[in-house]
Structures
1.
Amino acid sequence: VQLVESGGGLVQPGGSLRLSCAASGITFTLYELGWYRQAPGKQRELVTTITSGDITNYADSVKGRFTISRNNAKNTVYLQMNSLEPEDTAVYYCVGKRFTTNYRFDYWGQGTQVTVSS
């Protein structure tokens, strides 16, 4: 199983980025997917999730600015990030789990760095 993130980088405050996560080795359509982030010196935070039925949830800190989506034909999940703030600077990890009732995610990507700075 592999989850491979891409799309991170350096962006100015107020800018946008789109992260992608390509999955392999799983029956993608059956999985709940999401994004965690971890900033230096801070606890890991669950940013957003999307179920196999396209139900989404967001952390309060990103509601209205971030959008998660999935393309089942491409086995890919996306995170569109708009109105980025310096506080969004973190390593972003793509995650997946088979059963929504499970608290923990089964699989993690290697992470991609997002830096918001002028």
Note: The CA atoms of residues 50 and 56 lie 4 Å apart.
2.
Amino acid sequence: QVRLVESGGGLVQPGGSLRLSCATSGVIRTFYSMAWYRQAPGRQRELVADFPTGGSANYADSVKGRFFISRDNPKNWVYLQMNSLKPEDTAVYYCNARGLTINLQDFESWGQGTQVTVSS
């Protein structure tokens, strides 16, 4: 079983910054990708950024130039640096990982989510 745990959410004023972290655990052989999604009230969950293994980061248009995803591959952690935050960034942010277990089974796992609220 692969487990993801997010941290770093909170309340921030418009224009501020937050850094989300996602720790993974489990019997993982390799990751295909690690990503961040978000879901605002009354809206569908949407991709914020993803980082395929061996590839380049991809971002939703709404966060390009403000959010940055990074990975610590030895630790199997993924981060989301969020700058110039706007009220419309308010949402629950979820960590997502897809990969292969040591038993050669594909997996996709989600974290429990962390609330980010941007408000003055």
Note: The chain has a mean pLDDT of 96.
